[in-house]
Design brief:
Helices cover about 40% and strands about 10% of the residues. With about 425 residues, the protein is of the alpha+beta class. The longest helix is centred in the first third of the chain and has 25 residues.
Length: about 425
């Protein structure tokens, strides 16, 4: 059985066979020989089950063999091969972390060791016994002892990352500058004018026009007293016409009621007290699309775009700068309803600051304007949801860079590697 030193870039070449797990499952697939750090077939299979569980939580079709066979690129790489390689890369970083943890002379505290044991004890109690937990874990290729080893290794890796970079990455050399660069590479910044292809059903008058009120309780009608004019009551000569609330009614030149559209419409609600939505006709939507393109045409200053937001936008974003991840497919992975954000993000990556473009999301037309990133916007509480987990992602990126320096230390047994199952054949692990 020959062994050879290879870089992670060549791992994909070795993923050629789909043999089932055999009695070699406990043998070493990867090893750093000078330190004795290694991973077996079982342990790597466990990491594969976790990857599959993560994809399942994102709503991907992991139970379908056809999905795993999907071709990703012109080289014929399948999703199965891609995620298997991703898992091996992460497993390699896990191994390098164990090596560096010892090399730096770090140790887990007694409290940290007890924390791991307590986690295992909780799992045993939940399962009912050690035998029952081992039976459950066997579906994922491991047993209690192996799981405890993995949990210990992962805690070491997190402690090592903090040792090198801190929890926010600022301990890295030129940390603040690098973090801003990573932020600008990973997110696009924009504002938008949203023109909806739909409308909310509202209370209307006899002309079909939306009625606007002076408050949300709809106690009084809001009239445009600057544009409209009152008229004499046809039933009571000498008096002005009044509405049901006793207020003077104002009319436009064409005889319609002049509403103050800065007032409040009264929405019609469904049985769940949700606003009822209706889409415009196809002809009307086409007209809105042409109008959006017309508004977006030509070079615009930021001030001109801000004015467009005030005049035309039906969205709730106002003048707030918005940030989107530029990672392809990120939002579709969260929900099919947010897939349109991937289209906006893709457009923004092609645009220059100050450029304007229209994206049709189906729900309407987004006239987007690309802005410069604010300094350290990832730390702004207003964007807390968008940048949730950003610090950890930045630290992971820094650690992945550091690990590349040590990839050459990893020895991979290609014959045992071939014994790894395919992603489609492992269980989906969302528990451990």
């Amino acid at each position: 059985m020959s062994k050879k030193i290879i870089s992670l870039a060549l791992v994909c070449v070795l993923l050629l066979s789909a043999l089932s797990l055999t009695s070699c499952s406990g043998k070493k697939v990867m090893e750093i020989e000078e330190s004795g750090v290694s991973l077996s077939v079982n342990e790597i299979e466990f990491f594969m089950t976790r990857m599959k569980g993560l994809l399942q939580s994102y709503g991907y079709g992991v139970s379908s063999s056809a999905w795993w066979g999907t071709i990703m690129n012109s080289q014929g790489l399948t999703l199965d091969e891609y995620y298997k390689t991703r898992t091996l890369e992460e497993a390699s970083r896990y191994m390098i972390a164990q090596y560096l943890f010892d090399k730096e002379g770090l140790e887990l505290s007694d409290d940290e060791k007890n924390q791991i044991k307590a986690s295992i004890d909780d799992l045993v109690e939940l399962a009912g016994s050690k035998n029952k937990l081992n039976s459950l874990l066997s579906e994922y290729g491991v047993n209690i002892k192996m799981l405890e080893k993995i949990y210990t290794g992962e805690l070491k890796m997190e402690k090592l990352k903090e040792y090198y970079f801190g929890t926010d990455g600022l301990k890295a050399e030129n940390g603040e500058q690098r973090k801003q660069e990573y932020f600008e590479e990973s997110f696009a910044c924009y504002k938008q004018v949203f023109i909806a292809a739909y409308y909310y059903k509202t209370v209307t008058d006899d002309n079909g026009d939306t009625v606007y009120y002076t408050d949300e309780k709809a106690n009084k009608i809001a009239y445009d007293t600057k544009v409209g004019v009152p008229r004499e009551d046809v039933y009571d000569s000498g008096k002005l016409e009044c509405d049901e609330f006793g207020d003077t009614v104002y009319y436009t030149e064409d005889g319609k009621i002049a509403y103050d559209k800065t007032g409040y419409p009264k929405y019609i609600l469904d049985k769940d007290d949700e606003k009822i939505i209706e889409y415009h006709t196809a002809e009307k939507i086409d007209e809105l699309g042409e109008w959006a393109e017309e508004l977006a045409s030509g070079k615009k200053t930021e001030a001109e775009f801000e004015d467009m937001i005030d005049r035309y936008s039906e969205g709730e974003d106002g003048h707030e700068k918005l940030y989107l991840r530029t990672e392809a497919g990120f939002y579709e992975a969260q929900s099919p309803y947010s897939a349109y954000l991937d289209e906006i993000a893709a457009a923004l990556t092609e645009m220059q600051d100050g450029e304007c473009r229209v994206v049709d999301s189906g729900a309407g037309f987004h006239i987007i304007y690309k802005y410069e990133h604010d300094e350290a916007a990832y730390a702004d509480e207003r964007h807390e949801k968008v940048f949730f987990g950003f610090d950890a992602e930045f630290v992971d990126m820094l650690f992945a860079e550091k690990c590349r320096e040590y990839e050459g230390l990893i020895s991979i047994d290609d014959e045992v590697l071939d014994l790894l199952p395919d992603m489609k054949d492992v269980a989906s692990n969302i528990l451990y």
